[in-house]
Design a protein that fits this description.
169 residues, alpha+beta, 3 helices, 2 domains, Lipocalin, 20% helix
Amino acid sequence: MLPTLSSEVWHVGAWSQMKPLQLLVSLLLAMSEIVACAPERGAMTGDPAISKLENVEWTLIELDGAAVASGSGGAPTLTFSSKEHRAQGFAGCNRFFGGYQLNGNQLHVEPLATTRMACPESSSETALIKALEETASWRIGGRKLELLDARSFALSRWTATAIESGARP
């Protein structure tokens, strides 16, 4: 009989009475319980402030001053990849991607390409793509990102939902 991960496992006597196979199985079970409790790789833990635009997955919360609800496919997302200088994301039904130029807080999103899925309503996607392409600068407060036009008007607001693995915002 294998001991459980209750208090008797931690006694030296219980370990010494186990056969090698039982010991191996018990150790593997203990390790799997530890791994299962660890946060997912790339997931946000706690409520850290984000200081960089790139290598963070942003989820849209506001577009042109109006709150955004998640569609049937989920909430729109956006990521700026520092390695490829590529903006990419999900607009609610279609995916989008394209280049960008970053100079301090100045941001220029190049014309974006999109997939062409059969979507029930694409006007919000069109507005999102337009807002991204009109972006002139950005600012972050806490875990919130604002993409601003040339007059510093907030075109869209986003919240950080994940950090790309291996990247430190």
